């Protein structure tokens, strides 16, 4: 992984190229103060202080052979991505933001703009040397490096092809983290999975033995501390099962473990910050494949909770594995449960790629998540757990169906299905996230993306630091 700590360092007064952050309202003032050659260059380049604009001009200091003008939407409210275009375009060297500008999360974009997964390139792309940002906020450097590392891990896991990331490799990623973090790992598979977690077993039963399903659990922290559960959907590839997806719908299904990537990244942040919690990480890892052992439309599955679920659609498999994982989480009496899942296409139709559909059974938790998402530039959008739609999950033969008998409200009915398995008395949030960026943006290449991670992390950190 990229050495982010080398790209963001406390400012100790060393020589660096100045970065001037300018929005459209401040640019005229800057031009007035810099008449002459630099002003002419700005006008010739049509630099207007718009977000994403970057212009190199001759320097005026002893080290500054050049200085850089960076356009931002509004200097008073910098976004996490306002420095990303500069970090992508500038040459190797050290840089310092001029003036009394609290950079804060803007440094995150600077870091992530310099990260790419290059494992699968047969020819190495020409390397640009590191662009180092010197920070006047030394207390935040470690925090921002941790956020960059967690985000990069989500991106890299989601971008890895399913041929190289099956349930066993997902387990290895958890074990590697747990070994470094001092967490305990427990993995259930084989007969024990079939008996104890029948829905997880059924969804993964069609995969080859090398890609056998499993429930991965990790625990960390003092057992006397408040208990929280973090759950991530780990469907390493989703063919749709016997209700086979069309080619276009299957193309990106390596990303169907994006919920697991988010959950692991969140666990990483919680442990790195030593939050006073007892953390329980759960990742049901399966491949929804097609073979003679695949579960079928019309099958009725037992669940760990004791409910029987009739299968209306084998492509609604994520909620099945999450149902068993939610039940397991509840057995340890957590006060807070958060799950991440790339659960429904309906969420993307309603909200597009950038906004995770967010559900919660707790008003205070929902408000905290939305507020944190806005504050850290990781927005969420709440949808209702509308009781009136529960009837869409009725089954004539079983306790409920895994898919609604209607084309309406697919995101909501999926969340209502999960609610049946949420532990009683726990505050619960469910994020239906895309985990993917279909169009590149500065600092955010096309591919795997962490969407909702920072919002949830900020919420949890604030809650338990107070306690």
Rg on CA atoms, Å: 24 Å
Strand content: 15-25%
Count the E strands: 20
Query: Under the CATH scheme, which class of the largest domain?
Result: Alpha Beta
Name given to the CATH homologous superfamily of the largest domain: Zn peptidases
How does the helix and strand content classify structurally?
A: alpha/beta
Q: How many domains, as an integer?
A: 2
Give the biggest sheet. Answer: 9 strands, mixed
CATH topology of the largest domain: Aminopeptidase
Mean pLDDT: 95
- The global form is elongated
Question: How would you describe this structure to a colleague?
Answer:
With 467 residues, this protein is an alpha/beta fold. It folds into 2 domains: 4-129, 3-Layer(aba) Sandwich (Leucine Aminopeptidase, subunit E, domain 1), CATH 3.40.220.10; 146-466, 3-Layer(aba) Sandwich (Aminopeptidase), CATH 3.40.630.10. It has 15 helices and 20 strands. Strands 7, 8, 9, 10, 11, 14, 15, 16 and 18 form a 9-stranded mixed β-sheet that branches. The protein has a 6-stranded mixed β-sheet with strand order 1-6-5-2-4-3. β15 (357-360), α13 and β16 (381-382) form a beta-alpha-beta unit. The longest helix is centred in the N-terminal third of the chain and has 19 residues, at 141-159. The radius of gyration is 24 Å and the shape is elongated. It starts with 7 loop residues before the first strand and ends with a helix. 49% of the residues are buried. This is Leucyl aminopeptidase.
């Amino acid at each position: 992984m990229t050495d982010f700590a080398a790209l963001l360092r406390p400012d100790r007064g060393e020589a660096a190229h100045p970065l001037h952050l300018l929005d459209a309202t401040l640019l005229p003032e800057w031009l007035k103060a810099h008449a002459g050659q630099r002003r002419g260059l700005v006008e010739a380049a049509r630099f207007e202080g718009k977000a994403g604009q970057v212009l190199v001009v001759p320097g005026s200091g002893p080290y500054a052979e050049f200085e850089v003008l960076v356009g931002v939407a509004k200097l008073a409210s910098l976004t996490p991505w306002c420095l990303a275009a500069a970090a992508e375009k500038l040459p190797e060297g050290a840089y310092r933001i001029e003036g009394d500008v609290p950079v804060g999360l803007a440094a995150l974009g600077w870091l992530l703009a310099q990260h790419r997964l290059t494992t699968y390139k047969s020819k190495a792309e020409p390397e640009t040397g590191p662009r180092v940002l010197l920070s006047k906020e030394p207390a935040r450097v470690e925090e921002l490096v941790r956020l960059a590392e967690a985000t990069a891990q989500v991106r890299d896991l989601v971008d890895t092809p399913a041929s190289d990331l099956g349930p066993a490799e997902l387990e290895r990623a958890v074990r590697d983290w747990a070994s470094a973090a001092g967490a305990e790992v427990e993995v259930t598979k084989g007969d024990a999975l079939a008996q104890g977690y029948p829905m997880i077993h059924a969804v993964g039963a069609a995969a080859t033995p090398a890609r056998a399903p499993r429930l991965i659990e990790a625990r960390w922290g003092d057992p006397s501390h408040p208990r929280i559960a973090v759950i991530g959907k780990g469907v390493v590839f989703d063919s749709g099962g016997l209700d086979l997806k069309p080619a276009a719908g299957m193309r990106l299904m390596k990303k169907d473990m994006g919920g697991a990537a988010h959950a692991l990244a969140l666990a990483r942040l919680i442990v790195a910050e030593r939050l006073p919690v007892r953390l329980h990480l759960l990742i049901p890892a399966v491949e929804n494949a097609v073979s003679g052992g695949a579960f079928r439309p019309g099958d009725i599955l037992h669940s760990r909770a004791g409910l029987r679920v009739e299968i209306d659609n084998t492509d609604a498999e994520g909620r099945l594995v999450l149902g068993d994982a939610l039940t397991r989480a509840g057995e340890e009496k957590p006060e807070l449960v958060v799950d991440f899942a790339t659960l429904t296409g309906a969420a993307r139709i309603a909200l597009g790629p950038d906004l995770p559909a967010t559900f919660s059974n707790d008003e205070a938790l929902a408000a905290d998540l939305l507020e944190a998402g806005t504050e850290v530039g990781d927005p969420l959008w709440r949808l209702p757990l509308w009781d009136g739609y529960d009837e869409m999950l009725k089954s004539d033969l079983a306790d409920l169906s895994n898919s609604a008998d209607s084309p309406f409200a697919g995101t909501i009915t999926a969340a209502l299905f999960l609610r049946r398995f949420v532990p009683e008395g726990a505050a619960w949030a469910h994020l239906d996230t895309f985990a993917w960026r279909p169009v590149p943006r500065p600092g955010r290449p096309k591919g795997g993306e962490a969407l909702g991670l920072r919002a949830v992390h900020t919420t949890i950190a604030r809650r338990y630091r107070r306690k």
